[in-house]
Amino acid sequence: MIPERLLNALILAGLLAVPLWALAADEPFTITLATRVVILALAAVGLNIALGIGGLVSLGHAAFFGIGGYAMGILAHHAQTYTALDLGLFTVSGTKSMPVIWLVATLASMLAALLIGLLSLRTSGVYFIMITLAFGQMFYYFAIGWAEYGGEDGLSIYLRNSFPGLNTLVPIHFFGLCFAVLCLALFLHARLAASPFGLALNAARQVPGRAEAVGLDPKRLKLLAFVVSGAITGLAGALFADLNRFVSPTMFSWHFSGEIMVLVILGGTARVMGPVAGAALYVALEHWLGGLTDYWIIFLGAILLLIVLFARGGIVGMLSGRRQAGD
Amino acid sequence: MTDPILATHGLAKSFGALTATDDVSVELRPGEIHAIIGPNGAGKSTLIAQISGALRPDAGRVTLAGRDVTALATPARARAGLGRTFQISALAMEDTVLENAVLGAVGASGRPWRFWRPALRDADLRARAEDALARVGLAEHAAARCADLSHGQRRQLEVAVALTLRPRAFVMDEPMAGLGAEGSRQLTAFLDELRHEAPILLVEHDMDAVFALADRISVLVYGKIIATGTADEIRTSREVREAYLGDES
Fold it and tell me: ABC transporter domain spans which residues (chain B) (predicted)?
């Protein structure tokens, strides 16, 4: 068994080593695959805060991923077509600047998470799952009907957006940028989990009655967790759109909500590095098994089944030999 | 007479045709242990739920230190100074004993939104939690996972979490439940001292503990308080005997 801290360091080192090797071996596609792992992991880190610590089984996180994606798509679309973005009261011009796009993506996702959370958190259990799913699907169908931004076809962005000091079109530059964002999100998760807020949220998940009896309001704790969670998944959406230079309604589809939930469970629910391990395994299987057979998802299903049945702590739990996060 | 710390005034609650509490008025005065006894189904749990805020009464009021808290939800009542323990231990089983106690301290601090500094490295939170654990005799088990504790230790932790709140009044729902003779004796001695910090409204089935501890006892039968008095008064009351204690007592 490997101590979890060492295991976490090994996972991160591995994620960094693969694209560096690919750079040396001149395999740009592998760098892009690694970037995909990083961005999916970031989306799952967001979900992990709501699902892992707060116990909020959200099947609507694609909404935030899509909002982040469309924030990038819309701003970059107006920038590349030199058209103004009409916000009703005033108009703004588009932008190709990643920091600005990230800020907009994060704020828009937070606002959406606040509204969705306020309504969804009136329910719990299976109703919470269904209502978050319904919200996600609302965004999905809205995007399909949004003819101004490509409707079902989505939006293509010709050039990747820019970040000061980097050439984002160079795969390793863009990878490094995404990797840095992921590390920040992981650090935030780790701090948050050990903080008074994390402790309170964790208790609100396990014994809401106890949390209330010591003067804590479980709903408000969960709402804040949901907002933070949505913000991170939204930021991942903006990066994902930049990776593909393409945004479409599929970013809003409930398949994606399910996919990042699978990543979290595969890697280890509530574990800091769970989403990273899950995303790495997922993309590796998708790539290698997907090259062998179109039915690769069956193997993924089998692995997921084995993990849920026999290794509740996911990959990280299995390798570190600890049943629960934080013990 | 001194003003009560905690009081209910004519609390009533019905579930359909069933009247669970019927015009219940009890007072908890400074420094006292006031026990509520009654047969199963008498409405003790409903009464506790109304006092703690989990259930809204159909009629009546709850006051805490002179303040009407009837409209407050459970968390607000806890912050106003109500420390309760549960009949069935409500603890975060995945967490350690210390983390459970720190949770109480976080609640008491009123600042659960701090998300950056580790809770266990906060000297104030930790001191409050460790102090409470030491008082119930769990200090050396601080690092143990709650799920690994014995039943008796969980009961102790249940009390410790309430202690971290430093409440103005305790409401304890069968704290002796499932404790052995030795455990009951220790907890009895502890509560005997604790009443001087904050009075205790005690719902308990262990009659030895009730008669050893209670300054006053109220007897709840079919949702109504049929008698309130000292242990001796209750023991000798014919009405109480008929309704509850049976002839053997």
Answer: 6-247
Q: How far off is chain B from A237, nearest CA to CA, in Å?
A: 24
Closest Cβ–Cβ partner in A210, A214, A327 for B94: A327
Contact A215 B79 (CB under 8 A): yes
User: Digits of tens for pLDDT over chain A (327 positions)?
Assistant: 788 899 999 999 999 999 999 999 999 999 999 999 999 999 999 999 999 999 999 999 999 999 999 999 999 999 999 998 888 888 888 999 999 999 999 999 999 999 999 999 999 999 999 999 999 999 999 999 999 999 999 999 999 999 999 999 999 999 999 999 999 999 999 999 999 999 999 999 999 999 999 999 999 999 999 999 999 999 999 999 999 999 999 999 999 999 999 999 999 999 999 999 999 999 999 998 888 888 888 888 898 899 888 887 899 988 887 655 554
ipTM for the predicted complex: 0.92
Decide if A191 touches B, using CB distance below 8 A: yes
What are the strands, taking DSSP E only, across A133-244? 155-156
Angle, CA of A210, A215 and A216, to the nearest 5° = 75
- CB of B56 within 8 Å of a chain A CB? The answer is no
Is the pTM above the cut of 0.80? yes
Instruction: Identify the CATH number of the domain defined by range A4-320.
Output: 1.10.3470
Domains of chain B, each with CATH number or no CATH: 1-81+168-249 (3.40.50.300), 93-166 (no CATH)
Domain boundary assignment for chain A: 4-320
Partners of residue B228 on adjacent β-strands: B218
Nearest to A216 among B102, B112, B117 (CB): B112
